[in-house]
Amino acid sequence: MTQSSRLPGWTRGHVLAHLARNADALVNVLEGRPMYVSGEARDADIERDAPRPLDVQLADVRESAERLRAAGAVPADWSRTVELRNGVTDRAERVPFRRWVEVELHHVDLGIGYELEDLPADFTEREIAFLADRFAGHPDVPPTELSAADGRTWTTGGGAAGDPVGVAGTAADLLGWLAGRRDGSALTVKGGALPSLPPL
To answer: For the whole prediction, is pTM greater than 0.85?
Structure first.
């Protein structure tokens, strides 16, 4: 598990360890506890678990996913507000989608042949919309209209001064740029330079 992943400074073992610990962290969220004890503890847990053999890693990913599934099966008010990492809040009903994002994007990050183009179409559309909403009104992002090759559009940015910018490309390339997985060089930009997006 020491092979490099596509995430700077992380091996594939780091990615799998993060996926397992993220599932446990989301159990904490659903049960009303802090997502992580601290940022330092989160990072230390990933470093501790990263060197484990593949069979141990996969067993941990599966078992932690089952713990999250069980926590999600408990009757609860899914409209309630929950607190995630770094003070971010969201509705409990959006936690499953956030987990889906972790699983799909980190599957790509492993660098084992699963690409952004292989993501389920409904996931790609939802994640583009989610990230477009996240950057909407951001003070460093100019008004930006995103256009996929199949005609779908989204708007984002708008907090920075400047004329509207149009960014077009395949849904996979748009998602890759928004999610920090691609540099946007495959996109077509009109009305200005490709906006520089803040880190997620």
So the answer is: yes
